[in-house]
Amino acid sequence: MAAGAAEAAAAVVEVGSAQHFEELLRLRAQSLLVVHFWAPWAPQCAQMNDVMAELAKEQPRVSFVKLEAEAVPEVSEKYEISSVPTFLFFKNSQKIDRLDGAHAPELTKKVQRHASSGSFPPSGNEHPREDLSLRLKKLTHAAPCMLFMKGTPQEPRCGFSKQMVEILNKHNIQFSSFDIFSDEEVRQGLKTYSNWPTYPQLYVSGELIGGLDVIKELEASDELDTICPKAPKLEERLKVLTNKASVMLFMKGNKQEAKCGFSKQILEILNSTGVEYETFDILEDEEVRQGLKTYSNWPTYPQLYVKGELVGGLDIVKELRDNGELLPVLKGEN
């Protein structure tokens, strides 16, 4: 088989083990490697596999890989894959970017951008810089208190970021975060945008407060509590959330798009009853995801609540359905 034909045949490689994945990272170190973490039960993943197959034809120098997230948990856990579809981009065996969700135009854009050598699309005008500036403005305003850090609050990837998270948590400060390792363009651009060369960086109402040393000074002078918004006590928040609607489902994903097989099954059961219900995506809020397990003394998801009281998970809901008791329970008659 000629080299070109071999390349076309292996346009999208399927990875079946962590060892195979590590091998690919080494073998394809010189090119851009795009990895789709997918699941066979999610229809949006099938669509994105088609998109990726098309991109593979257009970008012969880019390596495209499919990895079933639940079948190779070591790799999924290492890269914090909590939902599908998720795409990771690698160059020189290092992760350089990430895309969560089924966004075909965004995937195409990122592949084109990273396949070209520079961090911006090859273009003679200044539009990409303007777009980045606008994006940074939106990101710094994404929450009243925004932390740009290395890693996540659950898994900081440098000592300074870890200390910053500890200080904010100690003072019960409500904040959102952005992992600068997930986006090289943001990582470099924010240094210029804020005229601050290091990370972590803390913003309140879109304004830079400073890095770790500044936050330590504010803490020492008792000013930190007056600058940053306080988080409501978690237990109060969970009580409000579980009572938000008469029937509340805490799940991975939402009504439109379940992001795990159990959540998908429970949605199908609830939809068949015709009863109105609301959902909360636990993947969007790590504090709720962990806190609700303790609050309800129930370790897994999905969790179904009626009038603020826990009914149970998928097995209990199936049991109630099979016994003909589900509808009365959902209507609060039991």
What does this structure look like?
44% of the residues lie in helices and 19% in strands. It contains 15 helices and 13 strands. The protein has helices at 3-9, 18-27, 43-58, 73-78, 104-115, 127-140, 159-170, 184-194, 212-220, 224-227, 234-242, 261-273, 286-296, 314-322, 326-330; strands at residues 12-15, 33-38, 63-68, 86-91, 94-100, 145-149, 176-179, 201-204, 207-210, 247-251, 278-281, 303-306, 309-312. The N and C termini lie far apart (68 Å).
List keywords for this structure.
single chain, 334 residues, five-stranded mixed beta sheet, 13 strands, 44% helix
Q: C-alpha Rg, in Å?
A: 23 Å
Helix content: 40-55%
Biggest sheet character: 5 strands, mixed
H/E topology pattern: HEHEHEHEEHHEHEHEEHHHEHEHEEHH
Q: CA-to-CA gap between the ends?
A: 68 Å
> How would the global form be characterised?
flat
What is the typical, i.e. mean, pLDDT?
87
Care to count the β-strands?
13
Can you list the strand order of the major beta sheet? 1-3-2-4-5
Q: Which regions have little confidence, pLDDT < 50, spanning 5+ residues?
A: 1-10, 118-129
Number of continuous helical runs: 15
Strand percent estimate: 15-25%
Q: Give the helix/strand class.
A: alpha/beta
What would you say about this model in short?
By secondary structure, the protein is an alpha/beta fold.
